[in-house]
Amino acid sequence: MWSQAEQERVRRLAVAAVVGQGLSVAAAGRVFGVSRQTVSGWVNGFRRQGESALAAGRRGRRAGEQQALPPWMQGQLVQTIRGRNPDQLRLPFSLWTREAVRELIRSRYGIELALTTVGQYLKRWGFTPQKPVQRAFEQNPVAVARWLEREYPAIEARAKREGARILWADEMGLRSDQAAGRSFAPRGRTPVVGKTGRRFGCNVIQAVSNRGELCFRVFEGSFTQAVYRDFLKRLLKQAAGRKLYLIVDGHPVHRGKNVNAWLAERAELIEVHRLPGYSPELNPAELLNNDTKHAALTRRRPRDPDELLDGTRSHLHRRQKQPHVIRSFFHHPDVAYAA
């Protein structure tokens, strides 16, 4: 790499060879080891501005050089953004926006940056704007860790020893007025989708296994202990004597006295285990819920209760014949522990 003084000397020699000695631009480029375009630029500059055009100037920044934030500082920021939320750092933001990152840099290092510069740093660090997954404030991280590290592995080991099946169950409601999905439209013109003004719905209870099995019941009315018991009876009938380990959330119906008494009488056939509170992301059945809502409410808008019931049942029957789709739900990072 030439010094500034050496660069100026080469420029003066090359221009003198072309202007004073009649050497061609291409020949001068070969002699001094630069391109003909570079020599041509020097000569044109000399002819326009004289000797001042050949003087050594301040070299510009190379890519990544002399950044406002040195590498060690950038490493600390990346670690902080990955591991903490703004409110944990007492910043007046709930999400990591450009404004939040700029405030973090200002408060921690006393450096003021433009939002565009903050955005460039975020892009360089591999961060992209994403819709966050919501987690309940009430969720207990210790209970979640205990479930993942101790409780579920123990259930899995017992089921393997006993030759039992493990199923994850959940319930959901479908409503005709539920907004679902997006549609392309010209910018500034919100699309209008026709739908019925009537309000109706149905409910679903379903159970899935990591082998691709699916059992379900679609029903109208409230989810009660009687409905739950009926579903459990169906699961036992399909199991044909094979023991079941059923994993559910903390819904009040799952903890009902009548349900617990019914389960106690059949302890050799079925055990129910509850997930940590406020942790729906740990239940693979939640992914089937989302899949069903999309199929029943987005692909076709039901016009009446019968259409909603038929469409929901049809989709779930289709999924029963697609065990590879059910198995794919268990590949999601939050439920991969159950795969």
UniProtKB/TrEMBL annotation:
Name this protein carries in UniProt: DDE-type endonuclease
Domain Winged helix-turn helix, chain residue ranges per copy: 93-150
SUPFAM superfamilies: Homeodomain-like (SSF46689)
A GO term for molecular function: nucleic acid binding
Domain Tc1-like transposase DDE: start-end pairs: 165-308
Range of residues in the leader sequence: none
Any one Pfam family match given in the protein's UniProt record, by short name: HTH_28
InterPro entries, sorted: Homeodomain-like_sf, InsJ-like_HTH, RNaseH_sf, Tc1-like_DDE_dom, Transpos_IS630-like, Winged_HTH_dom
Transmembrane segments: none
Source organism of the structure: Gaiella occulta
Keywords, alphabetical: Endonuclease, Hydrolase, Nuclease
Domain Insertion element IS150 protein InsJ-like helix-turn-helix: from-to ranges: 11-62
